[in-house]
């Protein structure tokens, strides 16, 4: 049986884990955050050097603490975000253990979970918040001939700065914000081509003199689910102040339709022509990093089975920080707090005994979203 003294274990000490800890404390639960890295700042220090937030500081806060320290309309840097998360973690009264990687989560026969760590600890937990992000699980598509290609192949997760690519022929694959940002900053240093499956869609950073995030908030678009949003917007779009579109129009950045295969020294384009390359950088996204949940048998080809972040297979298991977990803003600084309150409420309801069924794998639980 679970006891009220048992903590809720939060796996991951990034913005999602910290927002979960904040919500858990507010709900009267005892959170313990386990973070594999050396500080509770998530993956931000590992993002590329030049990264700045796409939302202004005023729209980039977690619950309970403003993103202060300057002009609220500035776009904070990667390091500012890490510093903000450090301050945030210090401001909440939660136990946070850094240097602690969760290796496995097992169900306990009478209910609850047993959490194992790389340090050999075993922690009995009343509930689990899986907030381990996706940066540790970059997605690389399978493409014909890739194994034969002898040049550099890298996921954008491992890209830091443009200088090592000076004078090289570089292909960036992808049509999202990271692809455009990296291709754009490489362009003055290297010969860059951007390969995308469809024409790139742009979204203006500013509309009628206000940052787009102002309008996302006042129109409620920030809270739209994926199902609703895809009915309104057919393709994902890149936020642009105009510089990316101009760079493509001016020929500084070449954009081509996705290539069909690798060769030993480059790629074959859709029109059959060959281009020799020194490096290919894939900005092709990420998948949730949840390998430690394998003993529960809850993952479906690596993906969690959930409704709005609440597991549909295990009571007392919730997720946070998934892309489109509940809305467009779920996987962002500004949106994760809303989801944290939602999933922690489900945990609290479970723990307070409103839900009496045992913590065992089930085919499907009735979950409200
Ligand atoms: C390049 C890039 C730019 C982005 N820009 C923005 C932006 O401008 N604005 C915005 O709001 N969002 C942005 N995002 C989206 C999102 O806000 C970030 O990805 C954010 O870091 C997600 O936070 P998280 O806490 O969910 O995951 P992460 O930051 O990845 O944190 C997860 C943490 O879990 C830890 N962990 C993983 N596995 C384990 C384990 N088994 N045991 C213990 N700990 C573990 C990791 O060490 C990590 O610290 C961006 C994302 C990327 C990739």
Structure, briefly:
By secondary structure, this protein is an alpha/beta fold.
Tell me what you see in this structure.
Helices cover 20% and strands 23% of the residues. It is an alpha/beta fold and 369 residues long. The strands form 8 sheets. The protein has a 5-stranded parallel β-sheet, with helices on one face. Bound molecules: flavin-adenine dinucleotide.
| CATH superfamily label of the largest domain | FAD/NAD(P)-binding domain
- Kindly name the structural category: alpha/beta
Radius of gyration: 22 Å
Shape: globular
User: Quick check: average pLDDT?
Assistant: 92
Helix content: 10-25%
CATH topology of the largest domain, what is it called? FAD/NAD(P)-binding domain
Amino-to-carboxy terminus distance: 27 Å
**Quantity of strands, as a count:** 24
Tally of separate helices: 7
Instruction: Flag low-confidence runs.
Output: 358-369
Q: So, CATH architecture of the largest domain?
A: 3-Layer(bba) Sandwich
| Largest pleated sheet | 5 strands, parallel
- What small ligands are held by the chains? flavin-adenine dinucleotide
Look at the structure and give the CATH class of the largest domain.
Alpha Beta
Strands in their spatial order, largest beta sheet: 3-2-1-7-24
Number of separate structural domains: 2
Strand content: 15-25%
Pfam families: Pyr_redox_3
InterPro entries: Auxin_biosynth/cation_transpt, FAD/NAD-bd_sf
Organism: Micromonospora tarensis
Keywords: Oxidoreductase
């Amino acid at each position: 049986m679970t006891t009220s003294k048992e903590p809720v274990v939060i796996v991951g000490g990034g913005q999602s884990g910290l927002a979960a800890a904040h919500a858990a404390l507010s709900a009267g639960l005892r959170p313990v955050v386990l973070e594999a890295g050396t500080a509770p700042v998530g993956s931000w220090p590992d993002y590329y050097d030049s990264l700045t937030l796409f939302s202004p500081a005023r729209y980039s806060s977690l619950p309970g603490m403003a993103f202060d320290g300057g002009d609220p309309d500035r776009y904070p840097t990667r390091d500012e975000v890490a510093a903000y998360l450090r301050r945030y973690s210090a401001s909440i009264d939660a136990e946070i253990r850094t240097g602690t990687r969760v290796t496995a989560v097992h169900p306990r026969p009478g209910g609850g979970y047993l959490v194992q760590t790389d340090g050999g600890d075993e922690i009995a937990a009343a509930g689990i918040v899986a907030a381990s992000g996706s940066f540790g699980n970059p997605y690389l598509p399978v493409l014909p001939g890739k194994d034969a290609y002898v040049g550099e192949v890298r996921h954008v997760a491992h890209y830091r700065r443009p200088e090592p690519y000076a004078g090289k022929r570089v292909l960036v694959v992808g049509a999202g914000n990271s692809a455009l940002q990296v291709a754009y900053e490489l362009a003055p240093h290297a010969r860059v081509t951007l390969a995308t499956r469809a024409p790139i869609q742009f979204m203006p950073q500013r509309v009628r003199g206000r940052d787009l995030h102002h309008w996302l908030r006042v129109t409620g678009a920030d809270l739209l689910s994926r199902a609703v949003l895809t009915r309104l917007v057919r393709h994902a779009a890149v936020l642009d102040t105009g510089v990316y579109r101009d760079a493509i129009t001016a020929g500084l950045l070449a954009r081509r339709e996705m290539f069909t295969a690798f060769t030993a020294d480059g790629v074959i384009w859709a029109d059959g022509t060959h281009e020799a390359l020194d490096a290919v950088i894939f900005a092709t996204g990420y998948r949730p990093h949840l390998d430690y949940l394998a003993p529960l048998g809850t993952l479906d080809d690596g993906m969690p089975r959930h409704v709005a972040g609440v597991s549909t297979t295990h009571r007392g298991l919730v997720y946070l920080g998934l892309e489109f977990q509940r809305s467009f803003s779920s996987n962002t600084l500004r949106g994760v707090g809303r989801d944290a309150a939602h999933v922690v409420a489900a945990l609290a309801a479970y723990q307070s005994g409103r839900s009496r069924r045992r913590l065992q794998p089930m085919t499907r639980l009735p979950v409200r979203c």
